[in-house]
Write a structure and sequence with these properties.
Elements (H helix, E strand, L loop, with lengths): L14 E5 L4 H12 L3 E6 L16 H11 L6 E6 L5 H15 L4 E4 L19 H26 L6 E5 L14 H21 L5 E6 L6 H8 L22 H13 L10 E3 H8 L11 H10 L13
Parallel strand pairs: 1-2, 1-4, 2-3, 4-5, 5-6, 6-7
Helix pairs in contact: 1-2, 1-7, 3-4, 4-5, 7-8
Length: about 325
Amino acid sequence: MQEQSSSPGPLAGKVALVAGATRGAGRAMAVELCRAGAAVYATGRTTRATTSEVGRASETIEETAELASEAGRESGGSATAVAVDHLDPDRVRALIARIDREAGALDILVNDLWGGDHLVGWGKKLWEHDLADGLRVLRLSIDAHLITSSHALPLLTRRPGGLLVEVTDGTEEYNRRYREPVYYDLAKSAPLRVARALAQETAEYGTTVVCLTPGWLRSEAMLDTHFRVTEENWRAGCAVDPHFAISESPVFVGRAVAALAADAQRARWSGQSLSSGGLARVYGFTDADGSAPDAWRYLVDIEQADDDTPVDAADYR
């Protein structure tokens, strides 16, 4: 752990666990919580020695911890990388015991566990979809979240003011639509219900539970695999899909989590579905480029617009 800086951040003294922090939104959340002064435990399955089923050896949990520690250097934040498969209850139990032993508390839990995109049979009906792959999607997106919360909540609720963030894709409003195929629909709807349920179960302990979604996330895979661009020239991807103009970097949702964690009145959000774009309007943070994209509002307006009504992504940034 690093020594405290002379200018501690708003989360100085807070302990956070970001479960699923190897890449994308989870990595950015770990970095931004650390930048705000928190002591962050960042977990994932891909290390410099082993690669998870996602198959992206280029992003590791050790690198996440290094980036987060550097971000927290002046605010007193620190980061610890821990290799954990969150489908293994014994390893999750050992992780929480370690946090309790080393830090003595847990103030923030972010369940950003996923890693199932490569298993989703896009465009396939239930009976066409590989059954084993579909059930694995549900294990990764639902079971892993429940296993982690089951072991972490006794520590998180030990003192009032804890924050649990369930991460999904899509707001409650948007996910009333069918997010095909059925396994993906279930995977991305479940965290919304889990957050609502756990908000009820933890209310007596003063815990805030929310479900948070980024917008169209420019994750590493989205950039280098789907659009074959970089963060520096990402707008070239709009030639492939013009709606990519509303996309956001992972920094945006990372800042959303940090702002939420630093809000002394965050209990007002408990049980609710939140988005990075919606929270930006409340807290005033921006994406790395200074914009504040609101992807879900844009997508809803696109669907509802008449043919003669132009909808410009620039108006939602």
